[in-house]
Amino acid sequence: xxxxxxxxxxxxxxxxxxxxxxxxxxxxxxxxxxxxxxxxxxxxxxxxxxxxxxxxxxxxxxxxxxxxxxxxxxxxxxxxxxxxxxxxxxxxxxxxxxxxxxxxxxxxxxxxxxxxxxxxxxxxxxxxxxxxxxxxxxxxxxxxxxxxxxxxxxxxxxxxxxxxxxxxxxxxxxxxxxxxxxxxxxxxxxxxxxxxxxxxxxxxxxxxxxxxxx
Amino acid sequence: xxxxxxxxxxxxxxxxxxxxxxxxxxxxxxxxxxxxxxxxxxxxxxxxxxxxxxxxxxxxxxxxxxxxxxxxxxxxxxxxxxxxxxxxxxxxxxxxxxxxxxxxxxxxxxxxxxxxxxxxxxxxxxxxxxxxxxxxxxxxxxxxxxxxxxxxxxxxxxxxxxxxxxxxxxxxxxxxxxxxxxxx
Lengths: 214, 184
Prior knowledge:
Number of strands of chain A: 4
CATH superfamily of the largest domain in chain B: Winged helix-like DNA-binding domain superfamily/Winged helix DNA-binding domain
Number of helices of chain B: 10
Structural class of chain A: alpha+beta
CATH class of the largest domain in chain B: Mainly Alpha
Number of strands of chain B: 0
CATH topology of the largest domain in chain B: Arc Repressor Mutant, subunit A
Oligomer: heterodimer
CATH architecture of the largest domain in chain A: 2-Layer Sandwich
Largest sheet of chain B: none
């Protein structure tokens, strides 16, 4: 009875043991049990098969429509943002202040700062995106796997993607790896290799670049 | 690359560019997670955008106790389950779903070909949303017990038990489709 309970507890942990996401103490517990009960080893193959087909089923779904991000962004202005709420509250406080010369000057300066912030945020909300987002379908362009440098800024990544006419199409995968798609007409191996080498030279933004397949 | 917590901070300040970056990083995962549950591409796209809208609205409330991805998938799971409940006209029938002919093969033909993978895939797809979500979180999204528990908002032991039962149910469905895995 105790043996059955222990076996069930171990079997419950096997999926995480296979994906490598088990706590160290539990990993040791599973490995100790497997050494003592080799008849359980075939169960690992069942888990691996389940995992493989779950990955296959997810990947086979492909990508969503490419205009999703545009639809999302189009719906934002209709949404009350945290910032706009704060601005209104700040204006409200300003107009409810008791009038005194010092406070009037402070209010004027604060109002100018708030207006500058509002102008900046409006600019961000209304300007065209500076980079391409996940678009495209398998077979369209050249796929590659990429890991960005830990200290790369979002704005640099966006510029990098624009420079190379690339989109992020998937990720992050384990290890912070993203799948990107480079829109090029010539997909021959020499051209692709040269392009990936150019990507890899951008050490300020990129940590790893690898070829990929659809 | 900007870390995710700082992206959320920027989103909370109304930075739409930060939302675009977050969307570019994660929308495919969110879309696939919801689509596997609701089994409808258009509904999954709508739900995915709703997830990012919710992040836009509530970024300030993000505590950082879990990863941003965990937070997003938690919202996605909640919305997908709510969507399924609204579409009551389509009650789940695991056995019938698993027995549906595949685009490529029916179970008999696939079995004759030794194509157990195709049958296994179809039976995974035929699991209930409750079982399928935990299977995908662990196998596809490679979440730990704690992360899956945070997404599903259930205790960690329940996550382990739920996946165990999902795998047992999978074995039953496979048996009905003519494949005996010898477990449980």
